[in-house]
Design brief:
Structural class of chain A: alpha/beta
Radius of gyration of chain B: 18 Å
Helix content of chain B: over 70%
Strand content of chain B: under 5%
Strand content of chain A: 15-25%
Number of strands of chain B: 0
Order of helices and strands of chain A: EEEHEEHEHHHEHEHEEHHH
Number of domains of chain B: 1
Number of domains of chain A: 1
Helix content of chain A: 25-40%
Shape of chain B: globular
Distance between the termini of chain A: 38 Å
CATH superfamily of chain A: P-loop containing nucleotide triphosphate hydrolases
CATH class of chain A: Alpha Beta
CATH architecture of chain A: 3-Layer(aba) Sandwich
Strand order of the largest sheet of chain A: 6-7-8-3-9-10
Largest sheet of chain A: 6 strands, mixed
CATH topology of chain A: Rossmann fold
Oligomer: heterodimer
Radius of gyration of chain A: 19 Å
Chain lengths: 272, 259
């Protein structure tokens, strides 16, 4: 069953076309990764799919709902872990989850149980009453994942989920995300520019280059698509360079606005 | 009817979020109590000696105390937008906008929490004014009215501030505009001198300035021997009408803060 589909999804900011005619389909239960260098349009795509930005043209259906006309229903069906911090440092882990349990209309009788289960799923049960500002970067990310999945969304969007995390914390986040998919059957849609992350988490990938879809397929299909001689070891880095790098040794496109870069660095600093 | 219930419930959840923050760190509440104390003790004491301002037989300190309450509420509320930009920069705003919370509830919840933050100021000024010998009204109904007027004023001006934040989007620009907004609002009102002293053009401005109606309500509800110049009904009607219009506008503009 297709849980997410876009047709010619486009976003323009003045003269700049951030995303240019993206056509994609994601099946329920998949872990789908959107790859691309900075400024390729990954975050723009995710912001349109999560109803934060209206598309300039084209359409997108998420969980069978139109992101423009049925935005409120889309919001109920999805979870979203933005790149920037999205939990409140001045509240405890439990209070953060309680506020979102209420915002997502979880019945009063179920709230405590769901919060406990969500904390257990991400290994934070012992820290429920602790202020989030005392958490480490990895714990914050896991709490954000718990917060975004309290209402058991069918589809979870993760925007660069491990940016700024050390390798240990990164592996822990991957494990928890995998558990989530295994136990709740949540479909994952994530953006990343870490090939390691794409390789370990994603069952299918799409590569964006300058706002356009450059390639889509399973990691194995993408590796095979390079047509290298049999026996040559091809990595996702090769795939990425092939589709998102420019020919004739031209430097990689360096995208990303000032605000985007500053947000990314701030997130990295806070989590790190 | 369902949307109305949703609006009310979610407004309280957003307000709860803000109150929880205050509960974990209440230094902000204390520091905000200091400013009105200074105004009343320094400015108020000196000006009541000058006897230069015609207050219609009311001692100047009595005349000014409700104005200072309105001013402290305004000064705190008008910089509320900084918090909105800060939350946007942190990432919290994205998270709230992706939740199934009506935009109007996000804005109204913030307004309610600004109202809650104004309550300690009411207490500080009420106690201090009593100690300074201002003839207070002690009837429970007046006290309730006083709280309601200060609460609505805070809600109104914090929403105004939110709108500005959604339009200017950066802290630096907001700081400049915040300073620029406070002075005309304050001086084109009846907070520290009566409207009758103003030149005609300024009187007209003061008549559309919601702060004038807030001060008018606060004065008649707080100080014995004063009466509302416009009538309490009109005062509250103007304050509520402004709040409704601003919340509706804020709900439209709030999603823009993240784009």
């Amino acid at each position: 069953m297709t849980i997410l589909e876009t047709h010619g999804l486009t976003k323009r900011f003045g003269d700049l076309t951030a995303l240019d005619g993206l056509t994609l389909g994601v099946e329920a239960g998949e872990a789908f990764g959107l790859l691309g260098p900075n400024g390729a349009g990954k975050t723009t795509a995710i912001r349109m799919l999560t109803t934060l930005l209206p598309p300039t043209s084209g359409d997108a259906r998420v969980a069978g709902l139109d992101v423009r006309r049925e935005a409120a229903a889309v919001r109920r069906a999805i979870g979203y872990v933005p790149q920037a911090l999205s939990v409140d440092g001045s509240l405890t882990a439990c209070e953060n989850l309680l506020i979102f349990a209420k915002l997502y209309d979880l019945p009063r009788a179920e709230r405590a149980g769901r919060i406990q289960a969500a904390l257990a799923l991400v290994g934070l049960s012992d820290f429920a009453g602790k202020l989030v500002r005392e958490f480490s970067g990895g714990m914050i990310r896991r709490l954000e994942i718990a917060q975004s999945t309290l209402h058991r969304p069918r589809l979870l969007f993760l925007d660069e989920p491990t940016v700024g995390l050390d390798p240990l914390a990164r592996t822990a986040v991957w494990e928890h995300v995998e558990r989530l998919r295994g136990e709740l059957g949540t479909t994952l849609f994530l953006t990343t520019h870490s090939m390691e992350e794409a390789d370990s988490l994603c069952s299918r990938l799409a590569i964006l280059h300058r706002g356009k879809l450059a390639a889509v397929g399973t990691p194995a299909e993408l590796k095979a698509s390079l047509g290298r001689p049999a026996g040559t070891e091809v990595t996702l880095d090769d795939v990425f360079l092939h589709y998102a790098g420019d020919p004739l040794g031209a430097p990689l496109p360096e995208g990303g606005s000032f605000r985007e870069t500053s947000r990314e660095r701030r997130t990295a600093r806070r989590l790190g | 009817m369902r949307w109305l219930r949703d609006l009310v419930c979610k407004t309280f959840v957003i307000a709860e979020l803000e109150v929880l923050r205050l509960r974990h760190d209440y230094t902000e509440v204390i520091t905000r109590g200091v400013q009105p104390v200074l105004w009343l003790l320094l400015f108020g004491e000196v000006f009541s000696r000058a006897r230069a301002i015609p207050t219609g037989g009311v001692p100047y300190l009595d005349f000014m105390a409700p104005g200072i309450l309105a001013q402290s509420v305004l000064f705190v509320a008008i910089f509320y937008g900084i918090g909105i930009i800060w939350e946007r920069d942190l990432g919290l705003t994205n998270k709230l906008l992706v939740s199934p919370t009506p935009r109007a509830a996000l804005v109204l919840g913030k307004a309610v929490s600004a109202g809650v933050r104004a309550l300690p100021q009411v207490v500080v000024i009420f106690v201090l004014a009593t100690l300074l010998g201002v003839r207070m009204r002690w009837s429970p109904l007046s006290l309730l009215g006083l709280i309601a007027a200060a609460f609505t004023g805070a809600a109104l001006f914090s929403t105004f501030s939110l709108i500005i934040a959604c339009l200017v989007k950066t802290r630096e620009r907001f700081m400049g505009i915040g300073q620029l907004m406070t002075m005309p609002l304050f001086f084109a009102s009846n907070a520290i001198y009566p409207i009758s002293m103003m030149p005609v053009w300024l009187r007209w401005i003061s008549r559309v300035n919601p702060l004038t109606y807030e001060v008018d309500a606060l004065r008649s509800l707080m100080v014995a021997g004063t009466a509302s110049a416009f009538g309490l009904g009109l005062d509250f009607a103007v304050l509520l009408a402004w709040t409704v219009v601003l919340v509706a506008l804020g709900a439209k503009l709030y999603p823009r803060v993240v784009t």
